[in-house]
Amino acid sequence: MTTWTDAPLVALDLEGSGAQDRDDEAILEIAVVPINGGQPSLPDAFAALINPGRPIPRRPWISPGLTSSVLASAPLLAEVTAELAARINGKIVVGHNVGVDWRLLRRRCPDIRPQALIDTLRLARHVNPGVKGNALGALLDRYGLTAEVTSLVPASQPHRALWDTAGTALLLPALIDDLTVGSALTLAELLHIAGLPAEAAGIPAEGQAAPGQASLFDV
After folding, report:
1. Domain locations along the chain
2. Among 72, 109, 209, 211, which is least packed, fewest CB within 10 Å?
Protein backbone atom coordinates (compact mmCIF):
# COMPACT_ATOMS: atom_id res chain seq x y z
CA MET A 1 0.00 0.00 0.00
CA THR A 2 1.17 3.53 -0.77
CA THR A 3 2.10 5.58 2.27
CA TRP A 4 0.90 9.16 2.24
CA THR A 5 4.45 10.52 1.93
CA ASP A 6 4.90 8.66 -1.37
CA ALA A 7 1.70 10.03 -2.90
CA PRO A 8 1.74 12.73 -5.61
CA LEU A 9 0.50 15.56 -3.37
CA VAL A 10 0.25 19.27 -4.15
CA ALA A 11 -1.04 21.97 -1.83
CA LEU A 12 -3.39 24.51 -3.37
CA ASP A 13 -4.88 27.84 -2.37
CA LEU A 14 -6.56 30.56 -4.33
CA GLU A 15 -7.99 33.95 -3.52
CA GLY A 16 -11.30 34.84 -5.13
CA SER A 17 -13.46 37.92 -5.45
CA GLY A 18 -16.05 36.39 -3.10
CA ALA A 19 -19.01 34.04 -3.12
CA GLN A 20 -21.40 36.98 -3.34
CA ASP A 21 -20.40 37.18 -7.03
CA ARG A 22 -21.98 33.74 -7.50
CA ASP A 23 -21.23 32.42 -11.00
CA ASP A 24 -19.20 35.56 -11.73
CA GLU A 25 -16.73 34.97 -8.90
CA ALA A 26 -13.21 35.58 -10.22
CA ILE A 27 -9.89 34.02 -9.26
CA LEU A 28 -7.49 36.78 -8.20
CA GLU A 29 -4.46 34.76 -7.11
CA ILE A 30 -3.47 31.10 -7.06
CA ALA A 31 -0.58 29.04 -5.73
CA VAL A 32 0.43 25.38 -6.03
CA VAL A 33 3.17 23.88 -3.85
CA PRO A 34 4.37 20.28 -4.34
CA ILE A 35 4.60 18.15 -1.19
CA ASN A 36 7.56 15.80 -1.54
CA GLY A 37 8.25 13.21 1.14
CA GLY A 38 5.72 14.91 3.37
CA GLN A 39 7.27 18.39 3.18
CA PRO A 40 6.58 21.43 0.96
CA SER A 41 8.99 22.02 -1.91
CA LEU A 42 9.00 25.80 -2.23
CA PRO A 43 11.65 25.92 -5.00
CA ASP A 44 9.13 24.05 -7.18
CA ALA A 45 6.14 26.20 -6.22
CA PHE A 46 4.00 28.14 -8.67
CA ALA A 47 2.20 31.33 -7.68
CA ALA A 48 0.53 33.95 -9.84
CA LEU A 49 -1.74 36.93 -9.64
CA ILE A 50 -4.66 36.65 -12.04
CA ASN A 51 -6.24 39.46 -14.04
CA PRO A 52 -10.00 39.04 -13.53
CA GLY A 53 -10.77 41.15 -16.60
CA ARG A 54 -12.82 43.61 -14.58
CA PRO A 55 -12.40 46.00 -11.63
CA ILE A 56 -12.66 44.37 -8.22
CA PRO A 57 -14.29 46.47 -5.46
CA ARG A 58 -12.48 46.69 -2.16
CA ARG A 59 -13.93 44.11 0.22
CA PRO A 60 -12.86 43.20 3.77
CA TRP A 61 -11.93 39.62 2.87
CA ILE A 62 -9.75 40.56 -0.12
CA SER A 63 -6.11 41.15 0.75
CA PRO A 64 -5.09 44.82 0.42
CA GLY A 65 -2.43 43.76 -2.10
CA LEU A 66 -5.03 42.46 -4.56
CA THR A 67 -6.15 45.77 -6.00
CA SER A 68 -7.66 46.35 -9.42
CA SER A 69 -4.60 48.34 -10.52
CA VAL A 70 -2.20 45.54 -9.49
CA LEU A 71 -4.34 42.79 -11.03
CA ALA A 72 -4.77 44.68 -14.31
CA SER A 73 -1.13 43.94 -15.23
CA ALA A 74 -1.32 40.26 -14.20
CA PRO A 75 -1.86 37.42 -16.70
CA LEU A 76 -5.35 36.30 -17.56
CA LEU A 77 -6.41 32.94 -16.15
CA ALA A 78 -6.32 31.45 -19.66
CA GLU A 79 -2.61 32.30 -19.85
CA VAL A 80 -1.72 30.16 -16.81
CA THR A 81 -4.26 27.36 -17.18
CA ALA A 82 -1.83 25.06 -19.01
CA GLU A 83 0.75 25.53 -16.24
CA LEU A 84 -1.87 24.81 -13.59
CA ALA A 85 -3.06 21.70 -15.42
CA ALA A 86 0.50 20.38 -15.69
CA ARG A 87 0.95 20.80 -11.94
CA ILE A 88 -2.47 19.55 -10.79
CA ASN A 89 -3.79 16.97 -13.26
CA GLY A 90 -3.45 13.47 -11.87
CA LYS A 91 -2.17 14.79 -8.53
CA ILE A 92 -3.87 14.71 -5.13
CA VAL A 93 -4.73 18.25 -4.12
CA VAL A 94 -4.42 19.26 -0.47
CA GLY A 95 -6.18 22.38 0.76
CA HIS A 96 -7.73 23.90 3.87
CA ASN A 97 -11.48 23.76 3.34
CA VAL A 98 -10.41 22.68 -0.13
CA GLY A 99 -13.95 22.23 -1.45
CA VAL A 100 -14.45 25.99 -1.60
CA ASP A 101 -11.34 26.61 -3.71
CA TRP A 102 -11.92 23.53 -5.83
CA ARG A 103 -15.47 24.54 -6.78
CA LEU A 104 -14.22 27.89 -8.07
CA LEU A 105 -11.23 26.40 -9.89
CA ARG A 106 -13.38 23.70 -11.44
CA ARG A 107 -15.88 26.30 -12.64
CA ARG A 108 -13.18 28.45 -14.23
CA CYS A 109 -10.88 25.65 -15.45
CA PRO A 110 -13.00 22.57 -16.19
CA ASP A 111 -10.11 20.73 -17.87
CA ILE A 112 -8.07 20.65 -14.66
CA ARG A 113 -8.60 17.21 -13.15
CA PRO A 114 -6.86 16.17 -9.94
CA GLN A 115 -6.90 12.56 -8.84
CA ALA A 116 -8.44 13.37 -5.44
CA LEU A 117 -8.88 16.11 -2.84
CA ILE A 118 -7.68 16.09 0.77
CA ASP A 119 -9.07 18.63 3.24
CA THR A 120 -6.85 19.63 6.17
CA LEU A 121 -9.91 21.14 7.86
CA ARG A 122 -11.56 17.70 7.89
CA LEU A 123 -8.32 16.20 9.12
CA ALA A 124 -8.02 18.75 11.95
CA ARG A 125 -11.57 18.01 13.08
CA HIS A 126 -10.80 14.29 13.04
CA VAL A 127 -7.58 14.71 15.02
CA ASN A 128 -9.15 17.02 17.62
CA PRO A 129 -12.90 16.33 17.64
CA GLY A 130 -14.95 19.00 19.33
CA VAL A 131 -12.11 21.53 19.37
CA LYS A 132 -13.13 24.84 17.82
CA GLY A 133 -10.91 27.38 16.11
CA ASN A 134 -9.86 25.38 13.07
CA ALA A 135 -9.16 28.23 10.71
CA LEU A 136 -5.81 27.85 8.97
CA GLY A 137 -4.14 30.67 10.89
CA ALA A 138 -5.41 29.38 14.23
CA LEU A 139 -4.16 25.86 13.51
CA LEU A 140 -0.74 27.10 12.41
CA ASP A 141 -0.47 29.06 15.66
CA ARG A 142 -1.60 26.01 17.67
CA TYR A 143 1.06 23.81 16.07
CA GLY A 144 3.78 26.46 16.29
CA LEU A 145 4.16 26.70 12.53
CA THR A 146 3.38 30.35 11.80
CA ALA A 147 6.96 31.59 11.98
CA GLU A 148 8.14 28.69 9.81
CA VAL A 149 5.61 29.56 7.12
CA THR A 150 6.76 33.17 7.14
CA SER A 151 10.40 32.09 6.88
CA LEU A 152 9.58 29.89 3.88
CA VAL A 153 7.72 32.65 2.03
CA PRO A 154 9.01 35.94 3.48
CA ALA A 155 7.60 37.98 0.59
CA SER A 156 4.05 36.74 1.25
CA GLN A 157 1.63 37.07 4.16
CA PRO A 158 -1.44 35.36 5.63
CA HIS A 159 -4.50 35.31 3.38
CA ARG A 160 -2.35 35.44 0.29
CA ALA A 161 -2.27 32.35 -1.89
CA LEU A 162 1.38 31.37 -1.51
CA TRP A 163 1.49 31.90 2.27
CA ASP A 164 -1.70 29.92 2.83
CA THR A 165 -0.55 27.15 0.50
CA ALA A 166 2.80 26.80 2.27
CA GLY A 167 0.95 26.83 5.58
CA THR A 168 -1.37 24.05 4.45
CA ALA A 169 1.58 21.97 3.25
CA LEU A 170 3.25 22.29 6.67
CA LEU A 171 0.02 21.69 8.58
CA LEU A 172 -0.69 18.36 6.86
CA PRO A 173 2.24 16.39 8.37
CA ALA A 174 1.75 18.08 11.75
CA LEU A 175 -1.84 16.85 11.89
CA ILE A 176 -0.85 13.39 10.67
CA ASP A 177 1.77 13.16 13.43
CA ASP A 178 -1.09 13.46 15.93
CA LEU A 179 -2.70 10.33 14.55
CA THR A 180 -1.86 7.01 16.21
CA VAL A 181 -0.26 5.62 13.04
CA GLY A 182 1.63 8.84 12.28
CA SER A 183 4.03 8.59 9.36
CA ALA A 184 2.91 5.01 8.65
CA LEU A 185 -0.48 6.32 7.52
CA THR A 186 -1.37 4.97 4.10
CA LEU A 187 -2.77 7.16 1.36
CA ALA A 188 -5.99 5.14 1.42
CA GLU A 189 -6.37 5.80 5.16
CA LEU A 190 -5.70 9.51 4.69
CA LEU A 191 -8.28 9.70 1.90
CA HIS A 192 -10.78 7.88 4.13
CA ILE A 193 -10.25 10.39 6.93
CA ALA A 194 -9.84 13.65 5.06
CA GLY A 195 -10.69 13.07 1.40
CA LEU A 196 -13.68 14.76 -0.17
CA PRO A 197 -16.15 12.24 -1.58
CA ALA A 198 -15.79 11.90 -5.33
CA GLU A 199 -19.37 12.99 -5.90
CA ALA A 200 -18.94 16.16 -3.85
CA ALA A 201 -15.62 16.94 -5.52
CA GLY A 202 -16.99 16.42 -9.01
CA ILE A 203 -14.14 14.01 -9.81
CA PRO A 204 -14.86 10.65 -11.49
CA ALA A 205 -15.29 7.96 -8.87
CA GLU A 206 -13.56 4.60 -8.86
CA GLY A 207 -14.10 2.84 -12.16
CA GLN A 208 -14.99 6.12 -13.89
CA ALA A 209 -11.60 7.77 -14.21
CA ALA A 210 -10.83 9.80 -17.28
CA PRO A 211 -8.90 7.94 -20.00
CA GLY A 212 -5.25 7.56 -19.01
CA GLN A 213 -5.85 8.88 -15.50
CA ALA A 214 -5.59 6.86 -12.29
CA SER A 215 -8.80 6.10 -10.46
CA LEU A 216 -9.70 8.31 -7.52
CA PHE A 217 -8.95 5.67 -4.91
CA ASP A 218 -6.53 3.52 -6.92
CA VAL A 219 -3.98 3.67 -4.12
Report:
1. 4-200
2. 211
Cβ(119)–Cβ(95) below 8 Å? yes
Nearest partner of 75 among 96, 94, 47, 102, judged by Cα: 47
Residue 84 CA neighbour count, 13 Å, CB half:
29
Whether pTM > 0.85 for this model: the answer is: yes
Q: Which CATH architecture has domain 4-200?
A: 2-Layer Sandwich (3.30)
145 pLDDT above the threshold of 70: yes
Sequence-separated (6 or more) residues with CB below 8 Å from residue 49: 28, 29, 66, 70, 71, 74, 75
The 8-class DSSP code of residue 210 comes to P
> Measuring CA to CA, which residue among 108, 111, 123 is closest to residue 11?
123
User: pLDDT digits over 82-114, tens only?
Assistant: 999 999 999 999 999 999 999 999 999 999 999
What does the pLDDT look like over 5-55, one tens digit per residue? Answer: 999 999 999 999 988 888 889 999 999 999 999 999 999 999 999 999 999
Contacts of 156 (CB under 8 A, 6+ apart): 47, 162, 163, 166
SS3 at position 118: strand
